[in-house]
Design brief:
The chain has 200 residues and is an all-alpha fold. It is 87% helix and 0% strand.
């Protein structure tokens, strides 16, 4: 939308050139300074509206970062709480590997009962599931949250740069060009008055 508005303007309209009789006869008559001033003021106000929208988007990103920071802290607390359960799980794994599974295997070998063999299989499967209970979920979420936060912060800074630097710079250049154009018209008028005075 910003580029569309800026493309409505033609920088060549603002170039202060000496008048050329052939351009006036054969070419398009240059727009009056008042028409151009009105057009650029309209585009300027639309650019201001776009700047407000950009500022709103920037604030949305920064608010998202606050929410993500809370999520990160909750994730950290969950990680710390989960560490206690993981420690308990590690003790249980140790107990199963050193005591429960060897006892179940010994019993299954002695009896040859299919149910005892199944108990050994069940214990092995439970041990496998218990070993998979790790910190990976919370460890993976923390970098993801930080990555999104960093991206949001970078975008917010770029938007802020556009609002505080790019858009005002564009508007300043337009204002300078308009002033130079008015100055050129004033010099032309003054020269014509001087020539008329000399002729009189």
């Amino acid at each position: 939308e910003l580029m569309m508005r800026l493309n409505e303007t033609n920088p060549q309209d603002l170039v202060a050139e000496d008048s050329n009789i052939f351009r006036k006869i054969f070419g398009r008559v240059k727009k009056s300074i008042y028409e151009m001033q009105s057009k650029y003021q309209e585009v300027g106000s639309q650019v201001d509206k776009i700047a407000v929208k950009l500022d709103h988007e920037k604030n949305g990103l920064l608010n998202d970062n606050l929410s993500l920071e809370q999520l990160y802290q909750r994730n950290k607390e969950f990680f710390e709480a989960l560490s206690i359960y993981i420690a308990a799980g590690e003790l249980k794994i140790e107990e199963m590997q050193q005591q429960l599974i060897p006892e179940a295997m010994k019993k299954a070998q002695e009896t040859g009962d299919q149910m005892d063999v199944q108990t050994v299989n069940d214990l092995h499967q439970f041990l496998d599931r218990l070993e998979k209970l790790t910190r990976q979920m919370t460890i993976q979420q923390a970098p993801q949250i930080r990555l999104i936060q960093n991206t949001n912060q970078t975008l917010a800074e770029k938007i802020q740069s556009s609002i505080t630097t790019t858009i005002p710079l564009w508007k300043n250049q337009i204002a300078i060009a308009m002033t130079l154009l008015r100055q050129k018209d004033a010099v032309t008028a003054q020269r014509q008055v001087s020539e008329t005075t000399n002729q009189l």
